[in-house]
C-alpha cells in the first residue's frame, strides 16, 4: 500500500493569490509579468511566486532534462536559458494539497512590484 507523505510536525505549505504584480527580468530581458501569480509559502523556504504560463515568455526558455522530487509538492520539470541552467520550474502533476500551482512556472529570482 502506498501512502502520501505527511507533513512533519510544524511543516506547512500555503498557496494563495499574490496581492502584487510579479515581474521576472533576467539579463535585462523581461521573461514574465503577471498580476495573476500565486504565492507559495513553505516552512523554512522563501516565498515563491508561481506564474501562469500565459504570462511567461516560453519562447525564451528551453525545456531541461532535469527533474526533482519534493515529497510535499511532487515532481518538478525545469527550463533553462543559455546562460542559466534550470532557471525555471513547474509541477505538471502536483500533490493535491498544492494543486493550484499545476503548470504555473516559478523562477529563482523574481521582482515583486
Tell me what you see in this structure.
This is DUF427 domain-containing protein. Residues 22-109 form the DUF427 domain. It holds the Pfam family NTP_transf_9. InterPro entries: DUF427 (IPR007361), DUF427_sf (IPR038694). The chain is mainly β and 113 residues long. The chain has a single domain (13-112), classed as Metal Binding Protein, Guanine Nucleotide Exchange Factor, Chain A (Beta Complex). Helices cover 0% and strands 48% of the residues. The chain is built from no helices and ten strands. It has strands at residues 13-17, 22-26, 29-34, 38-42, 48-51, 62-70, 74-81, 84-90, 105-107, 111-112. The strands form two sheets. It has a seven-stranded antiparallel beta sheet, with no helix packed on it. Strands 3-2-10 form a three-stranded antiparallel beta sheet, with no helix packed on it. The termini are far apart. Residues 1-6 have low confidence and may be disordered.
In short:
The chain has 113 residues and is an all-beta fold. It has strands spanning 13-17, 22-26, 29-34, 38-42, 48-51, 62-70, 74-81, 84-90, 105-107, 111-112. It comes from Streptomyces cathayae.
User: What class do helices, strands and sheet pairing give?
Assistant: mainly beta
- The CATH architecture category equals Beta Complex
Please give the largest β-sheet. 7 strands, antiparallel
Number of strands: 10
> Which percent range describes the beta-strand content?
over 45%
What string, H for helix and E for strand, traces the elements in order? EEEEEEEEEE
